[in-house]
Design brief:
The chain is α+β, with helices and mostly antiparallel strands. Helices cover 32% and strands 11% of the residues.
């Protein structure tokens, strides 16, 4: 049986931590930044964790576990 391929878009966007959680970036930090407050932009700069509801889909794209 051939190896499972990792989703190319997912491998660029998600990173697995040592404890098995999956880190992601925040959206809305690329353009049209002049109307967003400094406080909002600073919050978007920090990485976030993938929610438990989305975890099975992301793990399947990254071919983690079964």
């Amino acid at each position: 049986m051939p190896k499972m391929k990792v989703n190319s878009g997912a491998k660029k966007r998600f990173h697995v931590t040592a404890s098995g959680k999956i880190k992601r970036k925040h959206a809305y930090k690329n353009h049209i930044l002049t109307k967003k407050s400094k406080h909002r932009k600073k919050g978007l700069a920090h990485p976030a964790l993938v929610s438990e509801a989305d975890m099975p889909n992301v793990k399947r794209m990254l071919t983690i576990g079964k």
